[in-house]
Design a protein that fits this description.
Length: about 240
């Protein structure tokens, strides 16, 4: 390795750390977007995958029933009376629980997917949520606008880690063009609002192996080449809400 190469990598490393640091300072910005979504949609039922400390689950104040799913929740405070936390993986939840029964026989109004930060988990979670949804259900995906290559890698080496969730939006665009996707540039790593769901669709399940084979090995350079496919879907939140 030449001195010039080492210097350039050092600069990249410094730029990357500064970029991630700045993103970390804005890491709760997306809560404002989620709060506005709840205020506008007033969901009667809510489901969240990946609740961690329960901060976003607590935004579901209008819901009669709020379901939180996380294999290792670390709630900062007791869950609200309308919330039930399932300490299990999302795969186990959908395999073993009757979602409609857990929702008190109601339809699912709003779901937020922020679980394992690998695209195949997001796609599987989305497919599971869609099966228990209606065409009026709104699903929100987190972390689809990556910050930099290191934090967007499949292996976690940074404190702020979005993983390769950015691939999920590309997968949905290609395999499910029937869905309506709107990207919100909510800091630090974006939200994707998905509506127009089809609970009868099995396209993602039937193509799961092909999707894994096609997208798993793709690196950050693929995002840099194809980001326009996602960024062209960016809209401000109020415009997005008007279309729901």
């Amino acid at each position: 390795m030449t001195d010039d190469t080492e210097t350039e990598q050092s600069r990249d490393s410094v730029r990357g750390r500064l970029t991630r640091f700045a993103a970390g300072l804005r890491s709760r910005g997306y809560y404002r977007t989620l709060r506005r979504l709840h205020a506008a949609l007033k969901p009667e039922t809510y489901l969240e995958i990946g609740i961690r400390k329960g901060d976003s689950l607590a935004l579901a104040t209008t819901a009669a029933v709020a379901i939180g799913i996380d294999p290792a929740p670390i709630l900062a405070r007791p869950a609200a009376p309308n919330a039930e936390v399932f300490a299990m993986t999302s795969d186990d939840f959908f395999a073993n629980c009757d979602v409609r029964e857990e929702l008190g026989g109601r339809d699912l109004d709003l779901a937020f997917i922020d679980g394992m930060h690998l695209f195949e988990y997001v796609i599987r979670d989305f497919a599971n949520v869609e099966r228990v949804s209606t065409p009026d259900t709104v699903v929100v995906l987190h972390d689809c606008l990556p910050i930099d290559a290191l934090s967007a890698a499949r292996d976690r080496t940074t404190r702020l880690w979005t993983g390769d969730v950015w691939k999920a939006a590309l997968v949905l665009r290609r395999y499910r063009p029937d869905l309506r996707l709107t990207v919100i540039d909510a800091p630090p790593s974006g939200l994707v609002i998905v509506h127009g769901l089809d609970p009868e669709s099995r396209v993602l399940d039937e193509n799961a192996e092909a999707i894994l084979g096609e997208y798993t090995a793709l690196g950050f350079d693929h995002w840099e080449q194809h980001r326009g496919e996602v960024l062209e879907l960016v809209a401000d939140l109020e415009t997005a809400l008007a279309g729901l």
